[in-house]
Amino acid sequence: MNKNVFRNLSYGVYVISSLDEGRCTGCIANSVMQITSSPATVALSMNHDNFTNSCIDKSGLFAVSILSEESDSSLIGRFGFQSGRNVNKFDGVAFTMKSGLPVIDDSCGYIVCRVIDRMETSTHTVFLGEVIDGDILDSAPAMTYAYYHNVIKGKSPKNAPTYIPEDTISDDSGSKWVCSICGYVYDGETPFEELPDDYTCPVCRQSKDKFIKK
Ligand code: FE
User: What global pTM score does this model have?
Assistant: First the structure.
């Protein structure tokens, strides 16, 4: 089986938020899809290891903030590459409470759901949510998962349902600098020896010392 074929499926990039006993938290997901129109329901796939999974489980609520191509890509590093167990991810982020859940202001729309059913797989929970609120926030085009990979040059964390180990992705380019936090690959001129001193990762905003040469 060639797992790269899954890259031909279409996805978005979403901040999934929920509540940890009243504290706002969340993570990044790409696997969200509308299931029915009336009543409107959506499905969300979330790894068991994501702290947000247990928060959705306990609160019975989740919100989807739909990132756009113009959303600050550091939101992906902030919500996707650290855990809400030990970080308050919403600190310093502009958000608005919608039907009781935090929604990212720098997104093109949001959907708030109440969990009505779930299905367990070996690694992920598929939550089925009835939509209780939703609106468009911005006219910018929604960010697709392909845009994230091809334009932002972002990678998938291991918890993503679409994760593919990097060593199985064909790549015949030479050595390169790779962010050890989020997997972003520096796309400057090659070959090269050093990153600029003031360089920061465009995805997770870490400094150049977090980059390793591969
Ligand atoms: Fe990074």
Answer: 0.86
